[in-house]
Fold Sulfotransferase.
Amino acid sequence: MDSDEGMNKLVAPLPKEVFWNAHEICHVEGFWFFAHLMESIAAFRSDFEPRSDDILLTSFPKTGTTWLMALCHNILHRHDDREEEEDDVLTTVNLHEVVPTLDVFFLHDQVQDLVLNSNRSTGGRLLHTHLPYTCLPEAVRNSGCKIVHVTRNPKDTMVSMWHFYNKIFDVFPMEGAVESFCNGVLPWGPFHEHVIGYWEESKRRPDEVLFLTYEDLCRDPKKEVRKLASFLGKPFSPAGNGCEDEEVEKVLWLSSLGRLKELEVNKNVVSELTQIPNSSFFRKGTVGDWKNYLTPQMAERIDQLTQLKLQGIELSL
Ligand code: A3P
């Protein structure tokens, strides 16, 4: 059976919709996924062999994935012998190649190589997925590996997603984008159910699942980065004297949007792995940018949905 045949067999029986009038998405276990990724998703779910020291970053698209990848990478590598800035792999390789998204690229040779052969001195492998918690490979859920989830205000997520997909697909009107976001019929959606899955698991298993928000990271980056480093088993020295804060500040600077965006690799390079310009992962990075794009009615619609979905859950977004 060739790959197209295999894909057709996987996709044919699934309920389908067309996202933004152009892209086929399939419904699996309560969530929507791009049809063209179904083979990779299925392989990740059945073939991935987690290790207990793996670190799996998880996120709904456009909620701060790239930032979380950078922070974790820089926390884990902060004691490496880096004499020059050029020794930092992030100056030559985009983060999405350093920390591969397994549901999207599981079958890519580059990722297979990294997943099968990586033997890092700093501990387990740093990996990422956009899959919702309930769709993770069962082996991952039972492995005890650390999971870090990042989420973001739904209106800012929606606006960030609109910019991103408009760059890589044809431009689509905001009204339609809000409609699909609120209906939950979008890749990896519905958004709220995606978030709730990780939130509940972080409450059940706080030592193994850490839940962060983009807004907390913006509001108190030092506190959040210290929390993240401790969770990863690489704590900074306690706050108090200025020297220890320097290390935290360095990690924050190395991971900052301002720095990463200006690196040549993130300006004019199309990644061989993702096949999209590395620059598409970096835009404004502000909280509340939705105000510049959503009408009051659109904002109200998303707010009401958020209120409804998060009823009885101790989480505000
Ligand atoms: P905006 O579109 O609001 O600017 P993801 O990484 O999940 O795709 O999310 C992309 C969003 O994170 C974009 O938000 C992008 O600008 C922002 N971002 C990317 N790298 C960042 C970083 N290092 N620090 C803060 N925000 C970052």
Remarks:
- Residues 59, 61-67, 70, 156, 160, 163, 255-257, 260, 281-285, 289 surround adenosine-3'-5'-diphosphate (CB under 6 Å).
- The mean pLDDT is 93.
